[in-house]
TrEMBL record:
It comes from the Eukaryota. GO terms for cellular component: endoplasmic reticulum membrane. It is an enzyme of class 1 (oxidoreductase). It is a peripheral membrane protein. This is Steroid 21-hydroxylase.
Length: 500
């Protein structure tokens, strides 16, 4: 009896101690720094309203009205500053670019990047700078030929022929998934795989499972002690899938090294091997860049490219199905510039201005990377008139930038002409359009994503007239959740335009 009273007292003392320490820490922070304001947050849990929100961008729109465009929220143990307008985002990413260039430490991410050996989540260090430089050079090298056009054409031929067999309403999601995966697989590992190739099918399955199961993340990241004592089944399953994915990439990488011929660069992996060989001669630092770094570059390309491209196209197709007038204008332009006898190519892009503007508008209204990737401050710094201490997580709200009524007239209207000048050519990029972010951590894949998405979109539009089944509400409803909005599932009907 006595001992249980004592232990209850001890727990009480312990809890009071924690609360006192927490309060002192908070006061010290408030006194030392002028921190961005924000709603009340519980210790460990954070802001309850943020936790239960279906979409983070919706709750951020509410807080912007209360606290202004720079505020602080807390999600579990992660306290983060959110930037919600183009001025504060530009101040952080461009004016003070080095201050905001780190990534926060998240244990599960550290495991899946084999100890921060990737580009997307690694910290801003000299090794990271070299790694990113090598990857950009390899990508440029790869894009210099017409390999991208070849692989897109080959993959689209296979996937669109399957899609053409649908003779009633269907959800295009799986076809888009197949196109994007097949293309990125070919970019990394050579020619476009047959859709029933067992290696390709297995690779696609583990990639899908990895994304689907991760969902909203791991409870272990909220309570890291769990990694040591009892990890969840979800975490163990994802780890197993990840190990298989890494083993597959490792095997493909080794096969490339064994058959490498610098006079015959077949794909991005070859470009990467070549770029490393070239850099070895004059870069002392190269010794720090291991095979794990190169393997993780391929994970970066897959993980960075697949979901972003897939959801962008899903949005674009959904908008076209609900907006027949805009679809007709895109098709009229493709008929005029490309015709029906050949497929659209990379060089047509600069003449297909309305088509490109339509894609830009789909990327604005359906911002797939709504909050980009989390940044972290390298040192004590400032933004929007507030202090931001070293090691603070900072999120850029790209969704808010793309829906800011101060920058976009009729903000919810789908209007490709926003991007065109009086001659119908692509004009200067609108100030608050920033889907690929900016600064030191700007999307590494922007140079490949833009032509890739354009080619896929233009090829679909050239081939099919897309409509929605009768009685479908043409207005787009959002599905997905949390940080990643996407269109709610929908059905389309396709009619082969070449058959009419
Ligand atoms: C619609 C297409 C895409 C969009 C909208 C998009 C958007 C973004 C955004 C917002 C970021 C975060 C930037 C930041 O931290 O400030 C990012 C990072 C990144 N993206 Fe993309 N992305 C797309 C396609 C791709 C593709 C196709 C690839 C690969 C080929 C790719 C690879 C990466 C990588 C590696 C990073 C991390 C860069 C770093 O930390 O230095 N992305 N992307």
């Amino acid at each position: 009896m006595m001992s249980s009273v004592l232990s209850a007292l001890n727990i009480q003392t312990f809890l009071i101690g924690i609360i006192v320490l927490f309060t002192v820490y908070k006061f010290r922070q408030r006194w030392k720094y002028k921190l961005p304001p924000g709603p009340f947050a519980w210790p460990l849990i954070g802001n309850y309203e943020v936790m239960k929100a279906k979409f983070l961008h919706e709750i951020c729109a509410k807080y912007t009205k209360i606290y202004g465009s720079v505020f602080t929220i807390k999600l579990g143990p992660f306290q983060m500053v959110v930037l919600n307008d183009i001025n504060s985002v530009t101040e952080a990413l461009v004016k003070r670019k080095a201050d905001f260039a780190n990534r926060p430490f998240i244990k599960s991410v550290d495991v899946f990047t084999e100890g921060g050996m990737d580009i997307a989540f690694a910290n801003y260090t000299p090794t990271w700078k070299l790694h990113r430089k090598i990857a950009i050079k390899a990508l440029r090298q790869y894009l210099a030929g017409n390999r991208l056009e070849e692989v897109v054409r080959s993959s689209m031929n296979k996937c669109l022929s399957l899609m053409a067999k649908e003779n009633g309403p269907f959800d295009p999601e799986n076809y888009i998934d197949l196109m994007v995966f097949n293309i990125l697989h070919a970019v990394c590992f050579g020619k476009s795989a047959e859709l029933d190739d067992p290696d390709f099918v297995r690779f696609m399955k583990i990639d899908r499972d990895f994304t689907d199961i991760i969902g909203k993340g791991f409870v272990e990241d909220m309570f890291p002690i769990m990694y040591k004592i009892c990890s969840t089944k979800k975490y163990r399953t994802v780890k197993e899938i990840f190990d298989e994915m890494i083993a597959m990439i490792e095997r493909k990488f080794r096969e490339h090294e064994d058959t490498f011929d610098c006079d015959n660069i077949r794909d991005f992996t070859d470009s990467l091997i070549l770029t490393r060989k070239e850099a070895e001669q004059d870069e002392e630092m190269m010794s720090q860049l291991t095979d794990t770094h190169l393997r993780q570059t391929l994970v970066d390309i897959f993980r960075g490219g697949i979901d972003t491209s897939r959801v962008t196209l899903y949005f674009a197709i959904r908008y076209m199905a609900g907006l027949p007038d805009i679809q007709s204008k895109v098709q009229e332009e493709i008929n005029r510039v490309v015709g029906k006898d050949r497929l659209p190519g990379v060089n047509d892009r600069e003449s297909l201005c309305y088509t490109e503007a339509t894609l830009h508008e789909a990327m604005r209204l359906g911002t797939v990377s709504a909050f980009g990737l989390p940044h972290c401050t390298v040192c004590d710094t400032h933004v929007g008139g507030y202090d931001v201490p070293k090691d603070t997580m900072v999120m850029m709200n790209h969704w808010a930038l793309h829906h800011d009524p101060n920058y976009w007239k009729d903000v919810d209207k789908f209007d490709p002409t926003r991007y065109l000048d009086e001659n119908g050519k692509l004009g200067i990029k609108p100030e608050s359009w920033l889907p690929f972010s900016a600064g030191r951590r700007v999307c590494l894949g922007e140079s490949i994503a833009k032509p890739e998405l354009h080619l896929i979109f233009a090829t679909i539009m050239q081939r099919f007239e897309i409509t929605m089944p009768d009685e479908t509400n043409p207005e787009l409803k959002l599905g997905g959740s949390g940080l990643i909005p996407q269109p709610a599932p929908f059905e389309i009907i396709v009619k082969d335009r070449n058959m009419t």
